[in-house]
């Protein structure tokens, strides 16, 4: 799940880390879908080696999407998952490895959060079903038409996406089929290996991926310049990627788009919410319920190498009393982020990421490093003495943070109420039309995404039939509600009141239900929290330190409660084992999801005489804890006592069916190898040598060392292997079977290391630093002019330009406006053009001349912009790269080496020798007929600059020469640049 709002904060502060993916999509030709050949070079300009998929980030949106109708059955869900993987593969195009990791059994520290989310989901689903039934009943009483009600079993329970359920077992079999199909038939998959880590393999998906990377990079022959791409939407993936210290690590994720249309749960139409539904239309053909074309979400790359550049600048600390090491400072930054929030600990009350908590912590950290004279962390180990110094500094400003937060909240409420009062004037009596009064914030805004905006307009039009049936009276009531006339006062009673003195005593009394003067309890909570911080850091850098440890409280302590933590032991119990899949189901599921657990065990969740009935409350309190929305609150659920749970389950193990016992087993990763792999003959030979002894070998768990193209480990024969030349039936209805199979499947285990082995958190020897993207701050004037920003994943040397034929076509196509004939304004005809600011130019509009800003690095002293019918022509920099983005047609001039290619002439007018095909040689003007500003004897010497080839020389003062249209001679003593025109201006 990650840290709420972390990615939004990071993408706003470090904006250059985000790059839009260049995606080639299949096209429809005469009803036939033409697929993209992913074996071709990557259109993003970079070739990636390994693609890692955190599968739960794919499974959830494919099975219960929020912005389109949900799949009708599990077969459609599986097809949607296949299509999503195909799309990601088509964008990234890995050349060595595809790693699919599904969440397995999580550590106890994460199970508590999973339990809270699943209980919430079950409660919200039940409330939603009841609300749908109520709205349907009201609409039917009014005679509104409604589609048939979904049967109860048609409601998809997202809680089934948990290890041990029949759904996850079927998903594993479907992915097994999918991998065989692609490796046998898709040319883009030829030559890559695939590893599938399904839900029976313990561990969270992203941490199984990180464990694989850590163990592979610890091998002596690991390539330190491997290109990694990790797919997932969780914010903690950013910290995990930084923790690897790999130079080439990229995250791909779906671009977040707010306010995406969602179908109504009552009528299935887009354009309104469930509470606003007025029914459907009998003619279903008039209203589309599927999203409009063009609304498919895009993917973006998060470049961690660019984030490292940002942090390298931010974490600079001059004059340290010890050697500076950016890799160690980076690890400390990751540790600081844990205080703001993570999946295993509640965040400190004084730290809110929306209030700049990360920046506050980093500033405190940089200040304290000079006192501690050392780094806070080292390869996952924490120096608590130095943490104590940082917490002391934070504790000193904790009171001020709470007071400032309350002050800001009061100001926000006052502004919000004033805005609502202004909007409430006769608001309930006005229809919602385009002429109704609105605030400035609700006024029309520039279109940011044309395709998305067009799709939204189409959606609004498609649902106009249903909207017409809404009564005016109901519309007025809803408008009044939107205006805030019937809202209650938001300033509800807060019994803690963090902004007032004595907040600590009230906090512990209210949240923990202990006496106000119980200082010993506060100390115990703080120590448990510190142990949690150590556990989380170890989890990120070395793997799971203990499967049993968890933070046993719902709330965090205050920073000022961290006292005397230096002597706390950071050792954890070794040799602990994770829950088995079915045991985890009993630990995280509510009674409403009991259909996913074995029937003998389900009774324990609902039987009032069950010894563990207290683990499954049907109703529970959600403490908003100062937040506004319920999803931000704290679900006050009892913690599961694993000893009581195992004791209650023990008598029922014998009642499990064979399939249920299989789902309850811990599994292995599976490695799939196709004919294009160098290790194909070796893996295939294992089965050929085994022959009839296949079953015996599997029982004995015989292991074979495996090493191929950067992948090391042990392989074991698998009972899921499909023999060469055999067939594999499709588990999805409608998909063809795999015929004449050529893929070999074996079980795979990562390289093993001793229990006390430490994976070093450092750059590997031989790692090459990627080309820097951010603009260096120590550029000289000449280097600053030559510097170009990197827009995509790599720097592009492609120069955009138009040939002469293109210029001729534009000249014939553009309308000729004789009103001004491109003549400068009168006030500028009386002054020397050389005195103009070089950054100012004039572009002809329909109403006259409007000043435009041009690039200061451009050779064009006077760039021209013409905005008519979507056409724009702008002066460019010396490399011919357009710094502005235009809608419609874009013409770019290429000014390099003294050659002018983008100058144009219209209506016979030439300004400052800005011409088409014209050339100045020896002071003679060729090709000029008509009006020219040079007739008045002025040609610009901009700001005294003279260009001599690629060198810029500075004169003492501007010089001007008088001449005629046909013969312009240089002024005495001047030295005309012998060469072609630079950017449409005459330089002397």
List the keywords.
988 residues, alpha+beta, eleven-stranded mixed beta sheet, two-stranded antiparallel ribbon, 26 helices, disordered C terminus
Describe this structure as you would to a colleague.
The protein has 988 residues and is an alpha+beta fold. Among the domains are: 315-403 and 495-561, no CATH class; 425-439 and 449-483, no CATH class; 800-954, no CATH class. The protein contains 26 helices and 25 strands. It has an eleven-stranded mixed beta sheet with strand order 1-9-8-7-4-5-6-14-17-16-15, sandwiched between helices. The protein has a two-stranded antiparallel sheet with strand order 2-3. Strand 18 (840-845) and strand 19 form a beta hairpin. Helix 10 (357-372) crosses helix 11 (384-396). The model is unreliable at 284-294, 462-483, 818-823 and 828-988 (pLDDT under 50). Possesses 5'->3' exoribonuclease activity. May promote termination of transcription by RNA polymerase II. Residues 1-255 form the Xrn1 N-terminal domain. One of its GO terms (cellular component) is nucleus. GO terms for molecular function: 5'-3' RNA exonuclease activity; RNA binding; zinc ion binding. Belongs to the 5'-3' exonuclease family. XRN2/RAT1 subfamily.
Outline the low-pLDDT stretches. 284-294, 462-483, 818-823, 828-988
Structural class: alpha+beta
What is Rg?
34 Å
Largest sheet: 11 strands, mixed
What's the count of strands?
25
Q: Bin the strand percentage.
A: 5-15%
Average predicted confidence as pLDDT = 78
Net shape: globular
Helix content: 25-40%
Separation of the first and last Cα atoms: 64 Å
Number of helices: 26
Q: What does the oligomeric state look like here?
A: single chain
Output the strand order for the largest sheet: 1-9-8-7-4-5-6-14-17-16-15
């Amino acid at each position: 799940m990650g840290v709420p709002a972390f990615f939004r904060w990071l993408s706003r502060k470090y904006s250059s880390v985000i790059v839009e993916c260049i995606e080639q999509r299949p096209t429809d030709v005469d009803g036939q879908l033409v697929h993209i050949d992913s074996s071709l070079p990557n259109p993003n300009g970079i070739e990636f080696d390994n693609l890692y998929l955190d599968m739960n980030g794919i499974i959830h949106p494919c099975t219960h999407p929020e912005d389109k109708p949900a799949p009708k059955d599990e077969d459609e869900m599986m097809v949607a998952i296949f299509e999503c993987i195909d799309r990601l593969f088509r964008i990234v195009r890995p050349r060595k490895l595809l790693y699919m990791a599904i969440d397995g059994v999580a550590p106890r520290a994460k199970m508590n959060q999973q339990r809270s989310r699943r209980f919430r989901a079950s409660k919200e689903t039940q409330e939603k079903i009841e609300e749908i039934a109520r709205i349907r009943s009201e609409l039917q009483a009014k005679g509104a038409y409604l589609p048939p009600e979904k049967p109860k079993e048609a409601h998809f329970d997202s809680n089934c996406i948990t290890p041990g359920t029949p759904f996850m077992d079927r998903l594993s079999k479907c992915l097994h089929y999918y991998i065989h199909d692609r490796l046998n038939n898709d040319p883009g998959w030829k030559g890559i290996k695939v590893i599938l880590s399904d839900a029976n393999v313990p561990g969270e998906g992203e941490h199984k991926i990180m464990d694989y990377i850590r163990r592979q990079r610890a091998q002596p022959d690991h390539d330190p310049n491997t290109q990694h791409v990790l797919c997932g939407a969780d914010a903690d993936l950013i910290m995990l990627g930084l923790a690897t210290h790999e130079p080439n690590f990229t995250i791909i994720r779906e671009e977040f788009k707010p306010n995406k249309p969602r179908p109504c749960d009552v009528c299935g139409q887009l354009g309104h919410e469930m509470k606003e539904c007025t029914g459907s239309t009998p003619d279903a053909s008039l209203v589309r319920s599927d999203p409009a074309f063009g609304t498919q979400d895009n993917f973006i790359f998060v470049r961690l190498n660019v984030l490292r550049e940002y942090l390298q600048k931010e974490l600079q600390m001059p004059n340290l009393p010890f050697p500076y090491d950016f890799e160690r400072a980076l690890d400390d930054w990751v540790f600081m982020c844990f205080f703001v929030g993570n999946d295993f600990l509640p965040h400190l009350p004084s730290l809110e990421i929306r209030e700049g908590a990360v920046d506050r912590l980093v500033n405190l950290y940089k200040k304290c490093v000079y006192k501690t004279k050392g780094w806070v962390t080292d390869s996952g180990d924490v120096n608590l003495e130095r943490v104590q110094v940082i917490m002391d500094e934070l504790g000193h400003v904790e009171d001020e943070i709470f007071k400032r937060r309350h002050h800001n909240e009061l100001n926000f409420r006052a502004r919000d109420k004033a805005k609502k009062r202004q909007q409430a004037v006769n608001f309930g009596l006005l229809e919602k039309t385009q002429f109704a009064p609105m605030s400035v914030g609700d006024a029309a805004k520039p279109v940011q995404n044309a395709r998305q905006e067009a799709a939204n307009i189409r959606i609004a039009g498609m649902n106009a039939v249903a909207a017409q049936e809404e009564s005016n009276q109901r519309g007025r009531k809803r408008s009044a509600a939107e205006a805030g006339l019937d809202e209650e006062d938001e300033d509800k009673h807060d019994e803690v009141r963090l902004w007032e003195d004595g907040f600590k005593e009230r906090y512990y009394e209210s949240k923990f239900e202990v006496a106000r003067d119980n200082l010993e309890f506060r100390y115990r909570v703080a120590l448990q929290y510190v142990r949690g911080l150590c556990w989380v850091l170890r989890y990120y850098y070395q793997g799971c330190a203990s499967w049993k440890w968890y933070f046993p409280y719902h709330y965090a302590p205050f920073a000022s409660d961290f006292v005397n933590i230096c002597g706390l032991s950071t050792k954890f119990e070794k040799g602990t084992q994770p829950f088995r899949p079915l045991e985890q189901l009993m630990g995280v599921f509510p009674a409403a999801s009991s259909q996913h657990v074995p029937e003998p065990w389900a009774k324990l969740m609902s039987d009032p005489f069950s010894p563990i009935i207290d683990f499954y409350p049907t109703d529970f309190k959600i403490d908003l804890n100062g937040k506004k929305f319920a999803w931000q609150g704290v679900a006050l659920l009892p913690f599961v006592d694993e000893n009581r749970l195992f004791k209650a389950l023990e008598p029922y193990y014998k009642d499990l069916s064979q399939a249920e016992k299989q789902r309850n087993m811990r599994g292995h990763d599976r490695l799939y190898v196709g004919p294009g792999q160098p290790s194909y003959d070796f893996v295939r030979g294992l089965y050929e040598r085994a022959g009839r002894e296949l079953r015996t070998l599997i029982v004995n768990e015989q292991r074979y060392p495996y090493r191929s193209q950067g992948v090391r480990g042990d392989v074991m024969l698998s009972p899921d292997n499909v023999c060469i030349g055999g067939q594999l039936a499709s588990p999805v209805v409608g998909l063809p079977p795999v015929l004449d199979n050529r893929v070999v499947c074996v079980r795979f285990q990562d390289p093993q290391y001793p229990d006390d082995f430490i994976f070093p958190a450092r750059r590997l020897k031989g790692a090459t630093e990627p080309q820097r993207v951010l603009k260096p701050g120590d550029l000289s004037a000449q280097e600053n002019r030559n510097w170009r920003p990197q827009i995509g994943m790599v720097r592009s040397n492609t120069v955009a330009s138009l040939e002469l034929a293109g210029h001729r076509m534009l000249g014939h196509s553009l309308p000729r406006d004789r009103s001004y004939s491109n003549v400068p304004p009168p006030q500028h005809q009386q002054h020397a053009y050389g005195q103009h600011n070089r950054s100012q130019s004039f572009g002809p509009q329909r109403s006259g001349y409007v000043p435009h800003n041009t690039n200061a690095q451009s050779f064009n002293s006077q760039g021209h912009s013409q905005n008519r019918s979507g056409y724009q022509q702008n002066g460019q920099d010396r490399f011919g790269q357009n710094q502005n983005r235009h809608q419609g047609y874009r013409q770019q001039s290429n000014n390099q080496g003294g050659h002018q290619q983008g100058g144009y002439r219209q209506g016979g007018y030439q300004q400052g020798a800005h011409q088409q095909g014209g050339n100045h040689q020896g002071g003679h003007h060729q090709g000029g007929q008509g009006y020219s500003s040079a007739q008045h004897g002025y040609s610009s010497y901009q700001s005294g600059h003279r260009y001599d080839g690629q060198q810029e020389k500075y004169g003492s003062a501007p010089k001007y020469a008088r001449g005629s249209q046909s013969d312009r001679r240089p002024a005495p003593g001047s030295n005309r640049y012998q060469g072609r025109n630079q950017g449409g201006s005459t330089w002397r």
